[in-house]
Amino acid sequence: MNRIFFSLLFLACTIFGLSLHAQQVVELKQPSSNKIIIKLMFRAGSICDPEGKEGLTDVTANTITRGGTASKTSRQIQEFIYPMAASFNTSVDKEVTMFTFAVHKDFLDSFYTVIKGLILTPSFTESDFNRVKTNQQVYVDQVIRASSDEDYSKFALEDLLFRGTNYQHMVAGTSAGVASITLDDVKQHYKNYFTKDNLMIGIAGNYSPAFLAKLKADMAKLPSLQKQLPQPGKANNPDGLQVEIISKPQALGSAIFTGFPLPITRSNNDFAALMVANSFLGEHRKSYGKLYEKIRTTRSMNYGDYSYIEWYEAGGSNMLPPPGVPRHSNYFSIWIRPVQIAEGLKQQYSELKDIQTGHAVFALKLALREIDNLVKNGMRKEDFEATRTFLRSYNKLYVQTPERQLGFLMDSRFYGRTDYIKEMDALLAKLTLADVNNAIKKYWQTKNMFISIVTDDSEAPTIKKALEEGAVTPMSYSNLVKEGLPEEVLKEDEEIAKYPLNVKSVKIIDNNETFKEAKAF
Q: Which domains are present in the chain?
């Protein structure tokens, strides 16, 4: 009888749109630790931004952590926690917002009043909101275009990949979107999405059962979800090579990001096979990868060249992938750090005074040719074994601190796993060379890709012309560099210069027109 009753109750809740809420809690017990880490992951990322209000989730989260509470101003909070050496921050990505708090266990009870106040009773004052919004407006209007062409090209690639979907805009938003956000928007967004129904609690350290019970009880006081969570946008499928060149005054080089949709994430066992292939091709910030070896080490073209099988947050500053940015919509990408433009080469080397185009097209051809060779020929046994051995040690560095370990455990739950790091290690241990080569053939190709290039306005037209005409693009060396290269490299250069690209469209975008508003193809 009881079973029938509860079945009918569950059915009724489903029909009437109610939810039977059960808190998700991830624990990392560390009895010998003096530090307590608390992470609150809300399934509220930038995909929750309403149309025309792109950037609202980021503004909301930052107004919470950079503002005050019902009892303390932002300045009073900082003065209060300073003697504790406590800290807190927030990070927003496409699908989640993560609040992270850290404190010595001796000050946990005092610091908890701040945690509770920020999450449950944020003050949302006009002054805090205006400060956060102004900083974010400056970022989307100016900083992204001026500070790092590498990040610029990366966000431009996502704009292409996800154009017309809720994944398209930067987490920080668009120029028009941020400008339209009001304090009332922030207050309502907080009520709609920062709720108990889409919260995962994470805690690490030497905490008591009583404290955890109090944390869970307090977070259960958050309101219920007011709006249905949006479905993550899917990446567009490129038709041939679709290129957008951002023409920027006084750019010092050509920064390139290129990629295509990838139908798997960490939730799939095939991900382990692609980890090996990707590490061999171009592990982030590692000098042994094929792309790095061919482009930087051998030809001295730039600072580094890497490949990715998922989003890599702040790759310019992070040596290891950070937790807290899990995504359902995935893509493969290549990062070619800025290569020289023709104007720069002409100024440095008199022997190159007649060149028309810098190194961008040659570097792109070289990178795609390397992927082609990997798809056609696969990895060799010795390369497979060495890369797999490296990864089984390297992946453990991802969780070298309690905060990172807790973060990856929470990400694991997002993907339907228990412990991603341990599970990937077990999958790597069982992998065969055939598994990896089959995965390469199944998931990688070079004929259909989106490509974003941020370059100088003097270089954009020549790159466009070379790509559209399918021109032979020889590598331009200074005499000194060329004299030191072995004959096999120069011979390979000739093949790369003639490598055919399946270019279908090339557009030049004015630097001032990027990230203004969300748009469709």
A: 22-219 (3.30.830.10), 241-513 (3.30.830.10)
